[in-house]
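Query structure, 551 tokens:
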């Protein structure tokens, strides 16, 4: 009994079903034998009934034989002889049929007693046919008929008695088999219910206790007791696996506490480093602000120099105005030559315009190339994101795989039930496969974008070739300008002698104007940039120092 209680759940269930099946098999065997007995009795009853029916047919035919024979003897009518012959043949046929049916020796004995009665009656009838009237032969015929009737009646009574004997036996056998089947089936069902109840109670009770322990562990109570560890069945294996799982949770909780301590220390060290950095930054930026103040002072001096240079420019401009009158006549000749130059320049302008159009087309192609490159860059960025996700999944998968290996090694055979970790590893492996598919898709997009970039670059190359052809046409137009340029040069020489004085003055004016413009631009640019930089620097320093100290 103790070994049964220590057996596995599978063995208990199999044993319970085996006992029920053996009981049902016994019931089936007993019922089958009872039914076979009933079937044999039924065959006997059927045989008796068929023989009785044949004997009844013979009795009816013999009665007809007696009526026909006696009528013939009394009346001498030959038609009675024909009926006699027919009825006698039917009676003999019925007797032969009964003899063929009978198998049981008692039935064969009954039929054997009837075998000579038709023949004896036939002999008596032949004797009576030779004499008419109520002669001794006729009386012998009557006696033979009565004897045959008595014998047939006796055989019928014996058959009825045998049939009455077999009928109750059949009923008793069937009733006994039915009663046995009912009670045995009810007992087997009751036993099965008891076995099922006992098995259910032996399984559901410990399972309920383990389920409650699992619930308490999932709620964070890792010190709860785990029942059933001493059992040798599947419930004991579940308890051992739950114990291993609880140990893993204990270790994970300790590792999480250690990680939180490390994070807290790292955050504190980071805050100290940031405060030190803020102090150093504030000191350096203070020196930079002083340098900006010095630069502003230098800009004021530059502005004063620009004012003086502007006054000198005004004086020299008056001298240039008086000398410019001498150059007007030579300028007329220059204008004539310039007209010819303008004609050629017009053609050059047309070519240059087409060149500009082609250049714009090249710019559009370049923009398309740039857009393709941007798409390529974005696809690469997405690939980087997917790779990061794969890295994270791989890290977590490795950690879970390590935990599963350690726990399975510690649990031994019980580690087979530690399916939680294995399921998690499978889930993470599926995610890794999905991430790999995403990488393949992104790589395909990068390849497609690269193809578009190559096509756009090909268009740019074709445009550049068109611009080269246009540049050749521009060169030929320039050659036409050479003749006009020579004429312009001659007139310019004449004008140059009259404008030497103007050139001297203009040179001074140009230098002064250039110095003034450069100084003015530098002052304005420096002033604007200095103001913006000072403002941005002040805001950035304040925000940075505040953020660092608040961190």
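Result returned for the query:
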């Amino acid at each position: 009994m103790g070994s049964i209680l220590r057996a596995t759940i599978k063995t208990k269930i199999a044993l319970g079903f085996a006992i029920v099946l053996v009981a049902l098999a016994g019931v089936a065997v007993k019922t089958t034998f009872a039914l076979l007995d009933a079937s044999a009795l039924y065959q006997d009853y059927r045989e008796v009934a068929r023989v009785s029916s044949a004997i009844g047919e013979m009795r009816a035919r013999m009665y007809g034989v007696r009526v026909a024979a006696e009528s013939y003897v009394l009346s001498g009518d030959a038609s009675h002889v024909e009926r006699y012959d027919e009825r006698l043949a039917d009676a003999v046929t019925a007797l032969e049929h009964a003899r063929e049916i009978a198998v049981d020796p008692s039935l064969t004995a009954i039929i054997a007693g009837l075998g000579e009665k038709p023949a004896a009656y036939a002999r008596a009838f032949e004797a009576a046919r030779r004499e008419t009237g109520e002669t001794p032969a006729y009386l012998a015929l009557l006696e033979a008929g009565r004897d045959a009737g008595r014998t047939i009646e006796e055989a019928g009574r014996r058959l009825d008695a045998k049939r009455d004997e077999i009928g109750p036996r059949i009923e008793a056998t069937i009733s006994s088999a039915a009663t046995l089947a009912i009670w045995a089936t009810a007992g087997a069902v009751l036993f099965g219910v008891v076995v099922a109840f006992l098995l259910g109670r032996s399984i559901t009770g410990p399972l309920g206790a383990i389920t409650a322990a699992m619930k308490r562990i999932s709620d964070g109570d890792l010190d709860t007791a785990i029942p059933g560890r001493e059992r040798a069945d599947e419930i004991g294996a579940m308890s051992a696996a739950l114990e291993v799982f609880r140990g893993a949770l204990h270790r994970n909780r300790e590792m999480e506490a250690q990680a939180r301590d490390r994070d807290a220390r790292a955050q504190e060290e980071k805050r100290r480093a940031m405060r030190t950095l803020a102090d150093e930054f504030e000191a350096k930026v203070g020196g930079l602000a002083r340098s900006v103040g010095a630069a502003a002072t230098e800009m004021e001096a530059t502005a004063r120099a620009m004012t003086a240079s502007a006054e000198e420019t005004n004086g020299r401009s008056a001298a240039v105005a008086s000398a410019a009158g001498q150059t007007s006549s030579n300028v007329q000749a220059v204008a004539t030559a310039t007209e010819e130059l303008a004609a050629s320049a017009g053609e050059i302008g047309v070519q240059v315009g087409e060149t500009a159009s082609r250049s714009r087309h090249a710019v559009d192609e370049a923009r398309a190339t740039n857009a393709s490159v941007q798409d390529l860059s974005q696809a690469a960025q997405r690939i980087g994101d997917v790779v990061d996700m794969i890295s994270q999944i791989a890290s977590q998968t490795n950690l879970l795989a390590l935990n599963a290996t350690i726990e399975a090694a510690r649990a031994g055979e019980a580690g087979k039930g530690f399916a939680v970790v294995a399921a998690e590893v499978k889930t993470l492996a599926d995610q890794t496969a999905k991430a790999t598919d995403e990488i393949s898709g992104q790589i395909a997009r990068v390849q497609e974008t690269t193809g578009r970039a190559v096509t756009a670059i090909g268009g740019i190359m074709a445009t550049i070739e068109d611009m080269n052809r246009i540049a050749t046409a521009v060169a030929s137009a320039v050659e036409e300008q050479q003749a006009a340029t020579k004429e312009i040069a001659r007139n310019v020489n004449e004008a140059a002698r009259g404008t030497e004085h103007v050139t001297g003055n203009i040179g001074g004016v140009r230098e002064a104007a250039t110095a003034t413009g450069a100084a003015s631009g530098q002052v304005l640019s420096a002033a604007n940039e200095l103001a913006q930089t000072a403002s941005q620097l002040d805001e950035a320093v304040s925000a940075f120092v505040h953020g660092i100290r608040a961190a």
